[in-house]
Design goal:
The complex is a heterodimer of chains A (338) and B (325). Helices cover 34% and strands 21% of the residues of chain A. Chain A is α/β, with parallel strands linked by helices. An 8-stranded mixed sheet of chain A has the order 6-7-8-3-9-10-12-11, with helices on both faces. Chain A has a 4-stranded antiparallel sheet with strand order 2-1-4-5, with helices on one face. In chain A, a hairpin with a 2-residue loop joins strand 4 and strand 5 (92-93). In chain A, helix 6 runs parallel beside helix 8 and helix 7 packs across helix 8 (174-187). The model of chain A is unreliable at 1-15 and 280-284 (pLDDT under 50). Chain B is of the alpha/beta class and 325 residues long. Chain B is globular and about 65 Å long. The mean pLDDT of chain B is 90. In chain B, the strands form 2 sheets. Chain B has an 8-stranded mixed sheet, with helices on both faces. Chain B is built from 11 helices and 12 strands. Classes of the chains: A alpha/beta (338), B alpha/beta (325). Chains A and B meet through helix 8, helix 9 and helix 10 of A and helix 1, helix 3, helix 7, helix 8 and helix 9 of B. The structure holds adenosine-5'-triphosphate (2 copies), iron/sulfur cluster (2 copies) and magnesium ion (2 copies). One iron/sulfur cluster binds next to loops of chain B.
Chain lengths: 338, 325
């Protein structure tokens, strides 16, 4: 608790001191429409998200498939152009910075580990090339021997064998490819790493090895992580704070202990109840009723009301604001008004 | 379950990657069997040969280097390794279907989801386009899409990672196969949809006695779905056990380490346990116990030869000198 108090104080400080800040960020994708349709429809993948990320912390992002986690990550590093809202990095507005400006700052300092390792690796580049080329492009090491040593060192830290440096991506297993993506992201000695399901294809022992590595780098170098994952135990382990998303919106944001111990939002409560465990016998799951609504026509009012066991009449009509129910614990739910 | 005949029986399977430089024995003498209606899980360290084992069953081992160099794969008593490519085409997708680990590599980027799903039904079940459309819609609903009509019209790259994975699952289930091979089917899925998919697989298993070969690193899912677990390490089976035995009395030191590495939902957050060291690369597997360099229980004999898979109980087998007389 002492811990989250200090974080709160940090948040109250000058926002310019935060490392990364998003303000009312939106990313809408236009839908393919029939020839006769005049009004354009959009998929509201990220819909009005505000978030401050401080140097040296890990913010976990969880939420159902298709709720906009990857889109949020990709928009943060400007792989997508935001539809609305602002993104600040080190106090500088990068919302509409040119590709040239981006290349000088965030293209090196913020790295993303992509969700689909296979699709994000160039099939015609060997493992060695994949990692050496960005080192070259950003002039991290001037001597080729240093670059090569760096590659070897990186491969070792993620548990890949340097004798496989000349292999192509398809010659690796799924988990090995995922670790290539991790090595590539760490190669440039970034300040921020956005890890999108970065350990999801790894067995628990290698997963533990990678997570310990990430945490060690954080302690030693002050790295900042945005950790997107569906694995709630891994998120709990690695994160200082956790944000819960649903249909492009943020439902709850709190310090990890607080969120897991005292979830305030009905959606967070449902999520936490569904975690499979190896303890005890096969349990009946509480499957959330109804389906994830369509992101192109989200429900009115609270977007969760079609599935919420606690829904009230106001929920259909009024969008709940994100409010602090405690220092550093934010919730978007009408129940917190009662 | 006990008296059911084996639906699938793999004996001493060897799948190697052969190039001018070296031979990679990715799968090195694997045996396992699945009865009708049974769910068997394969777990093991990344790179230990789980995907190549399952691709071998489908005879989709990556060309040009990959080759099945030994063993038999009996499906309903018939050796799949002796089938012609035409016969295999018939088996694939209809009798045996597979959810691949990489959804993007197995979905066609230039066809809509609808075209791909309907193609499978029309091809294998000789149904009309209308019937195929309805079947596809109902499957997409079952894997948790509230707007299946929209999804049908979409191209794979416009879907999120988990949405693609669910499309793959729908495609694998669409013809009610008798064996479903699911290679990390829920890695990209959050717990609620994961729960839905698990229920769906259980239902398939109950209603149609579909057998399931489940490859996953998520031991929570293993304990929930599987009856039998096969633990692989460095191209070999090192332990086979009922799911109860595995979680209450794992015998192999590797299995013990794996179970110890599971992050927990309760209690203090301390550094996670991971098995020290790295798995040897297939091109230089040692000629002694393959786990010896990382094993805390290793003794002299472990560096002198290879242990055999030894039966311990009716259902539990282990490959370790600690259990050999
Ligand atoms: N085309 C290839 N050429 C050479 N080696 C290969 C090739 N494909 C796979 N391998 C190797 O074969 C071994 C087994 O790979 P496989 O994909 O079966 O692993 P896996 O158990 O499924 O791992 P993961 O959990 O990471 O998916 C790995 O060491 C991998 O590097
Ligand atoms: N390039 C794109 N074009 C059109 N729609 C897109 C595109 N990328 C994502 N979407 C849509 O935006 C929504 C959010 O997708 P996103 O990939 O951010 O989800 P996610 O939370 O990462 O899900 P998952 O856990 O399944 O990876 C989805 O409805 C998806 O179909
Ligand atoms: S606002 Fe209403 S519908 Fe939304 S989560 Fe709260 S109680 Fe449920
Ligand atoms: S044979 Fe020896 S080295 Fe191998 S797992 Fe058993 S005890 Fe460990
Ligand atoms: Mg995603
Ligand atoms: Mg695999």
């Amino acid at each position: 608790m002492v811990y989250s108090q200090t974080k709160t104080n940090m948040e109250k400080q000058d926002h310019l001191k935060s490392l990364l800040q998003v303000v009312n960020l939106k990313k809408y994708f236009p839908m393919k429409q029939g020839v006769l349709l005049k009004t354009k429809q959009y998929i509201k993948a990220v819909d009005d998200i505000s978030l401050i990320i401080n140097k040296g912390e890990t913010v976990g992002i969880v939420g159902e498939s298709g709720c906009g986690k990857s889109t949020l990550g990709r928009t943060l590093i400007r792989l997508h152009k935001p539809t609305e809202g602002k993104i600040f990095y080190k106090g500088q507005d990068i919302t509409s910075a040119s590709e040239d400006t981006l290349r000088k700052s965030i293209r090196k300092e913020i790295q993303m580990i992509f969700q689909d390792p296979y699709a994000s690796l160039n099939p015609r580049k060997t493992l060695k090339k994949t990692i050496i080329e960005p080192l070259h492009a950003h002039r991290i090491f001037l001597k080729s021997i240093d670059r090569l040593n760096r590659v070897k060192e990186l491969l070792e830290t993620v548990g890949l064998d340097a004798i496989h440096m000349n292999r192509y991506p398809h010659e690796f297993s799924g988990g090995q490819r995922q670790r290539i993506g991790i090595a590539r992201a760490l190669a440039l000695q970034p300040e921020v790493v956005i890890a999108d399901e970065a350990v999801s294809a790894l067995d628990v022992s290698i997963q533990a090895q990678i997570i310990n590595l990430l945490q060690r780098l954080q302690t030693d170098l002050g790295l900042t992580y945005i950790f997107i994952s569906h694995d709630l135990s891994v998120v709990r382990h690695i994160s200082d704070r956790v944000a819960v998303m649903y249909l492009g919106k943020m439902m709850e944001l709190a310090a990890t202990e607080q969120l897991y111990g005292n979830p305030a939002h009905p959606y967070t409560q449902a999520l936490l109840s569904a975690v499979p465990t190896t303890k005890g016998s096969k349990k009946e799951r509480i499957v959330l009723q109804g389906e994830l609504p369509n992101a192109s026509s989200p429900p009115s009012g609270c977007v969760f009301h079609t599935r919420c066991p606690m829904a009230m009449s106001i929920c259909k009509e009024v969008v709940p604001d994100v409010k602090a129910i405690q220092p550093n614990h934010y919730v978007a739910c009408h129940l917190s008004d009662i | 379950m006990k008296n059911m005949p084996n639906l699938l029986e793999i004996k001493n399977l060897k799948t190697h990657f052969v190039s001018k430089k070296n031979t990679v024995p990715a799968v090195d003498g694997v045996s396992l069997s699945i009865k009708q209606g049974e769910t068997v899980a394969i777990v093991g360290e990344s790179g230990c040969g789980k995907s190549i084992t399952s691709l071998s069953i489908m005879q989709l081992v990556p060309e040009p280097n990959g080759e099945i160099v030994g063993g038999t794969i009996l499906f309903n008593g018939k050796n799949l390794l002796e089938c012609t490519e035409e016969e295999m085409c018939h088996v694939r997708g209809k009798d045996v279907s597979m959810i691949f680990q990489d959804p993007m590599t197995s979905l066609n980027p230039v066809l809509t989801i609808g075209e791909q799903l309907m193609e499978v039904v029309v091809h294998h079940q000789k149904k009309s386009k209308q019937a195929a459309y309805e079947r596809a819609i109902s499957l997409l609903k079952m894997v948790g899409f509230s707007n299946p009509e929209d999804i049908m019209k979409n191209y794979p790259h416009r879907l999120s990672g988990g949405m693609r994975q669910r499309v793959m699952i729908a495609m694998a289930m669409i013809c009610n196969p008798s064996l479903l091979i699911a290679d990390e089917p829920t890695t990209a899925l959050d717990v609620t949809i994961q729960a839905q998919i698990i229920e769906l697989m259980k239902e398939l298993n109950d209603q149609y006695a579909t057998s399931i070969l489940l490859i996953t690193h998520d031991l929570g899912i293993v304990s929930e779905m599987a009856e039998k677990v096969v633990v692989m390490y460095a191209g070999q089976v090192v332990e086979e056990a009922s799911v109860e035995e595995l979680f209450s009395n794992a015998l192999h030191p590797y299995t013990e380490g794996l179970i110890r590495s599971i992050p927990v939902m309760e209690g203090e957050r301390k550094e996670l346990y991971s098995i020290p060291g790295n798995v040897p690369s297939p091109e230089d597997f040692p000629d002694h116990c393959r786990f010896a360099t990382r094993c805390s229980k290793a003794f002299a004999r472990c560096f002198q030869g290879q242990p055999n898979l030894i039966q311990q109980t009716e259902t539990q087998f282990v490959r370790c000198f600690l259990y050999e007389e």
